[in-house]
Write a structure and sequence with these properties.
The chain is α/β, with parallel strands linked by helices. The protein contains 19 helices and 18 strands. Strands 1, 2, 3, 4, 5, 6, 7, 8, 11 and 12 form a ten-stranded mixed sheet that branches. Strands 15-14-13-16-17-18 form a six-stranded parallel sheet, with helices on both faces. It has a two-stranded antiparallel ribbon with strand order 9-10. Helix 12 links the parallel strand 13 and strand 14. The site of adenosine-5'-diphosphate has 17 residues, from helix 1, strand 13, strand 14 and helix 14.
């Protein structure tokens, strides 16, 4: 049976992406659309989207609408259109509100950041009303749209259109909860229902959007079963663990999938040659060419390790100053890093490159093309995350025959299986402790293994045979929708 789904998100690939939320929003909704469901995606029309000159059309009757937030009136229109080159006819709805979205980045540090996403969430619901679209599922993502479930139970509860609507909140990262000051609580706009806001938080001086999603959603999902267990503990819950425990079996983990239309070495359009599990030799050519492009001298037996990441504490960068230099000094290793984020981490990689000019290349910035090259050309891929709700690059790496070296946490633990030399099973190298010796141990183990060509090849091929396609993972979401309905 087909379902009507209203999917609200702050990021959508390739139009607006800072991380995996964008990939998942796009791939999951495309899956749902392909599977015959009526999905309506709502996202902001950020400046970068407006400037792309996409053939977007205004939606009839949804122009110049007004929404008052915190006493200020905002005007917005709804634009729609398929995303060109996506190979999908799924229409995306863009909430065009220049006062809030005509800004340089996707996110900002401005004091109305919460307003930007409150408007998105309410606009999605109000557009459903005006379109006469009665969603069976309101699917919200992360703190940005986490007020959706509470809105359904308060502001919009009068409307019979939503009488059958169940709400889902997907937590992609509990580390970002979107706190804003209690003085701005009126911006949520609940009127008489303002008592539904978390009162202790208000007394402490803030509003926590993510917490309201956890409290009021009919179902909370997160992006791996491992992370679903972890966030119920004080170590990983970032203060929401008691509320998540309280929700019992209404908190479930569904591992993200991979969009193999975009991430497949057999068809990757960003690479000059393609390769497969059975025909691996082009991968070696790509490595050679890539090392040349990076001006890194290397022997045929030199191992190349890649990293593509947001440079934030979550990604375990703090472990690297104490581990990488030693391994680089002692072993035959090259490292290609692509990332941006916190200045202190960018600084670290710049210095590492300066200290090891023949071994390390750091590209600061964001590059789709380079990220595909690193996945394809590297022998191994390093993700020493402090925590990782799911992580996508380890799954891309598996498909590309690039052995993941990961910390055993969250989705990394759920998607990578430890290599076992006795049975020749396993897909990568996992380490447990969040410390520098563990990273050194894992890298040295990888280097030793790499020297054994037969074992390494088996390890690569085991990973390449794994399937994390959305056909599988998307169906698990539909199963949860049905459970609610
Ligand atoms: P997170 O969402 O926490 O950043 P994920 O592993 O889920 O982690 O997703 C990260 C996504 O963003 C991947 O598709 C990865 O390739 C991409 N990415 C991260 N940093 C960069 C960058 N500097 N350039 C290009 N792509 C990047
Ligand atoms: C978050 C997490 C990442 C996850 C992504 C998509 O940004 O940090 O682990 O893969 O969301 O769900």
């Amino acid at each position: 049976m087909a379902h009507r789904i209203c999917f609200v998100t702050a990021e959508y690939a390739p139009l607006a992406k800072t991380g995996g939320l964008a990939d998942v929003s796009t791939a999951l909704t495309r899956y749902l659309h392909r599977a015959g469901h009526d999905v309506r995606v709502f996202m902001p029309c950020y400046r970068r989207i407006a400037e792309r000159g996409l053939p977007l059309s205004p939606v009839a009757g949804l122009r110049n609408l007004a929404l008052t937030i915190g006493g200020r009136e905002y005007r917005y229109s709804l634009l729609a259109g398929p995303i060109p080159g996506s190979g999908s006819s799924l229409p995306v709805h863009f909430v065009d509100c220049p006062a809030l979205y005509d800004r340089p980045g996707i996110y900002s540090e401005a004091d109305d950041e919460h307003v930007r996403f409150l408007l998105l969430t309410r606009a999605a619901l109000e557009c459903c009303q005006r379109l006469g679209f009665a969603p069976e599922i309101l699917h919200c993502n992360d703190w940005h749209t986490a007020f959706g479930p509470l809105y359904l139970r308060s502001l919009y509860a009068w409307d019979r259109l939503f009488a059958g609507t169940k709400s889902v909140l997907t937590i992609h990262n509990v580390g970002y909860q979107g706190l804003f000051p209690a003085e701005r609580a009126g911006d949520v706009g609940l009127g008489d229902a303002a008592w539904l806001l978390h009162q202790d938080d208000l007394r402490t001086g803030f509003v926590n959007p993510m917490k309201h999603g956890v409290l009021y959603a009919d179902l909370v999902t997160t992006v791996s079963p491992g992370y679903a267990r972890e966030i119920r503990t004080p170590e990983y819950g970032v203060g929401l663990d008691p509320y998540l425990r309280e929700r019992g079996d209404r908190v479930v983990g569904i591992l993200n999938g991979v969009d193999y239309d975009d991430w497949n070495p057999e068809t990757d359009r960003l690479l000059p040659v393609n390769y497969s599990r059975r025909r691996l030799s082009p991968k070696a050519d790509l490595k050679k060419e890539f090392l040349k492009r990076l001006h890194l001298p290397a022997k045929k037996t030199t191992m190349l390790v890649g990293m593509v990441t947001r440079l934030v504490a979550q990604k375990g960068i703090d472990l690297l100053p104490e581990s990488l230099p030693a391994v680089l000094r002692e072993r035959d290793l090259r490292l290609a890093v692509l990332g941006n984020g916190e200045p202190r981490y960018e600084q670290f990689f710049r210095e590492l490159q300066r200290a090891f000019p023949n071994q390390v290349v750091f590209h600061q910035g964001y590059s789709e093309e380079l990220s595909h090259w690193i996945e394809a050309a590297s022998d191994a891929f390093l993700m020493p995350s402090l925590y990782e709700p799911c992580g996508l690059n380890q799954m891309y790496s598996l498909k590309y025959g690039t052995v993941p070296i990961v910390r055993r946490t969250g989705g990394l633990a759920d998607s990578v299986q430890q290599w076992d030399p006795a049975t020749l099973t396993g897909t990568g190298i996992l380490f447990d402790h969040y410390d520098a010796p563990a990273v050194r141990w894992a890298l040295n183990l990888a280097l030793d293994l790499y020297a054994d060509r037969t074992a390494w090849r088996r390890l690569m091929q085991n990973g390449m045979a794994r399937d994390f396609s959305w056909d599988r993972q998307g169906a698990l979401y539909v199963e949860q929708y049905r459970r609610l309905l």
